[in-house]
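Hi team,

As requested, here is the filled-out complex form for the zinc ion run. I kept the field names the same as last time so the parser does not choke. Let me know if anything looks off before we queue the next batch.

— J.
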Amino acid sequence: MRTMRTILAVIISSMLSFMASATETITSPNSNVITPAPSRIVVGDGMLDASRSLNLYIEGDLATDDLRRLSAAAADCGIDLRVAKRLPRKDYLRLSLDSQAELGAEGYALRINEQGVAIAASNPAGLYYGLQSLKAYIAHSLQLPYVYIEDAPRFEYRGILVDISRHFRTKEFLMRQIDVMAGLKMNRLHLHLTDAAGWRIEVESYPELTRYAAWRKPATWKEWWYGDRGHVWEGTDGAYGGYLTKQDARDIVAYAADRYITVIPEIEMPGHSDEVLATYPELRCTQLPERQGDLCVGKEATFEMMQAILGEIIEIFPSEYIHIGGDEASKGSWTECDDCRRRMQEEGLESVDELQSYMIHRIEAWLNERGRQIIGWDEILEGGLAPNATVMSWRGEEGGLAAAAAGHNVVMSPHGYCYIDAPQDAPYSQPESIGGYLPLEKVYSYDPAPATMSEDVARYILGVQANLWAEFIVTDEHYEHMLWPRAIAIAEIGWSAPENRNYDLFRERAVKIVDRMIEAGYSPFDLKNEIGNRPESKQPIEHLARGKKVEYLYPSRYYAPKYAAAWDATLTDGLRGTWTYADERWQGFLGRGGVDVIIDMEEVTTIHSIAADFMQICGPGVFMPCLVEIAVSVDGQNYTKIADIEHEVIVDELPSFKNFGWQGEVEARYIRYKAHRSSFSGFLFVDEIVVN
Ligand code: ACM
Ligand code: ZN
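And here is what came back:
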């Protein structure tokens, strides 16, 4: 029998001779097939016919589990396979584990030529990923092009967060998503297991968490949130909910591990813990009647509980990283609580931020002693970051950049690019959601470590994650619709080097993946039917008032700074709003008054129309005006009203857009445009005031 070394010498020399005769290209018809886009593809001349069976030969020092995983993955490629005891001369599918292969922990080399298919990697995960690339070719055609591919991920962390708290999802559902992730070479599934709306993992030491906190009366988060936000006992008539048993969780972990995916459990603390306090009210800071969602950091019982829970969690989940949440604690009850005040005094803590930090430090130390690392949302920076913590940056990138600059590992998941709970297409065409607009192309445009980032910071960026929160996502079909194809873009961002990324090529592949998913019974968003951005926003608009000065009358000059867009230039800058008010094109007005502005046309002008668009999206509190008045003046002193447009504001689920304007003929220099807010308290959002 030949030694490993000679086998490798043969592989390498045959690869080199093959490469020498090949032309390097990524434009061959068969080359835009693999997602995420590989690092390097050399396409040769010829085709291997994979419609006849291939002989599977696996070599190298593989553990039994890996041998089983790789055999299963090979069998799943879509070709007829026979298992060979010796390396056949031809028609082989050869997997070689080669500790010398210099392709990194997850990289692989894939060669297809007249003899067969050969995949080499230094780790089993690399062989698995090589098989995923082969599977992509096979799904495209059984005539496999001769190629040599060298491929390795840009980032070590390529993840998806699945929220099973707001609406429960079963083990089977999670496994179906894991199948898709695996094909995309994603390697982290972050399970958001606990939140106010439901506790979703069995804990033997605190069994009421699943007997009570996992159940509620309303099936939808929305009814529950706008109702009493209560829970009911398991078995109550009509109770909605569910949880993963320990066995379910172990099954998911094993299923994911078989696909080289690590499952990261998230146990939220100290915030987002309303359901825990509803179940164990003795752990509330105070017994005051108002709702409390933050665990009491003063009481030792809180730590006993969290450590008992985490003790059970780490028995189920082998992941090095354990996510401890850390986001959005209101910290309000802590200042009212004797125990929290005592803790602050004893520990010399000067703020509630430091009190949260105290808890995260303690939990980190406890997990570190057990060989685990914590990961938490970027709020864990507040009050001082725990020494070994990894930060998941969601409120933007600032938290992640600060953590990386301080030498902490970071996973980037900024909401502007990675929060795929926003609609992905024209909101009127999409199910109700949290709002915003995040199309595939915008997700794809994200770079977690752009060239402008200093190397000292970039080295701490572990990777990227898509987060799919489920407040508005009741059904499995809807969940898949939101997840795919945008998570495919996250897979490519996480894997492919910037120079290998190209949106048009990516989109072609994504359309095909979506088609295949639909055939397989998934319900992704059908990318072929994408409508795209708001038509009005696609081109700047020329009109008579463009660039003219706008005076904001009191109190409308206090438009919301967060939604200032281009400040005083916004309403005449020629740029109209997209599907989302957070696009720095719509201008937002909150509080008293409404919109009340005067445009100075600079000279007396013949005007035939004056109009502006408003948007409404009731969830976040954005409403249409109830009245728009338009008046004009020649001298800036005496105004003549030319329009009085009344509107009945009706609450609805989907975002809507409405134009409020006047048409006619008038001579004027000054235009006063005034929009009154309705009795609904919230924002008015207006874009360009178009004058013709
Ligand atoms: C988060 O979205 N609150 C992490
Ligand atoms: Zn307290």
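Two things worth flagging: Residues 1-29 have pLDDT under 50 and may be disordered. Residues 352-369 form the longest helix (18 residues).

Thanks,
J.
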